[in-house]
Write the structure tokens for this entry.
Amino acid sequence: MVTEIIPDIRQLEQYVLLSQRDSLGFEYNDFFDPALLDDRAALDERIRIYRGLGRPERQDTMHGAFFDIVPFSYDLGIRNHSLYRMQQSVEIAGKLGCRGVVFHAGLNPQYIKGKNYYENWLSCMTQTIEKLTGQDGCLEIYWENVLEKSPEGFLALAERFGENRQFGICVDVAHLVLAGADVERWLSELGPYIRHFHLNDNCLETDDHFALGDGKIDWKTFFCGIRAHGLDGVSRLLEMNGLDKVERSLEYLKKLD
């Protein structure tokens, strides 16, 4: 089981030392910034810096573009630009030697209801996944929940791509809690397709990205759940910024593992 942290380019030496000390992977969070994506020189330099660290990159992941990304938009121009940004993400993740890239699924069934909305989402997401997995035959593509309360949409995608090992689901536990979702149901129904977890704490009101144990999420019950469903070997990201938060989260994990 791989535990990952988010490297900070401004404190890279400290993050590398921490990753070496505790055998941690990285999940790069630099490459969803449109300004960086449009600056070819800066983008190439950032990739060069990370590739020059001499780390075992195949345990790393990357967060893909998500600002204004709507691959299921009814506006063809928006849909095409979303795909362009996502394909950029796949290309960058490949250059970094990552094993996978995380994208937001973007389904919003809590506030936008209707058969046509859902069917359009499912159809466009299917086409998007086919294009992204076809772009790089090795890279895994993980789809992260954001607002979704029910796992229904993710399950529908999994039924279409579950045999494709490039397809996976990233469960963001804090997002599930804020959506009022039944976490046990997500683990139970999507267990075979879950490839990655995002872990951070909050006070049950906003997406605070606290260190584990600094908020009110019931982590003991969650970790009992992943063990019960055989998911304790799935990779996990400590999704918070700041070495102090990361260190405290690592200590908290030791009490739960």
User: Anything to note?
Assistant: The radius of gyration is 18 Å.
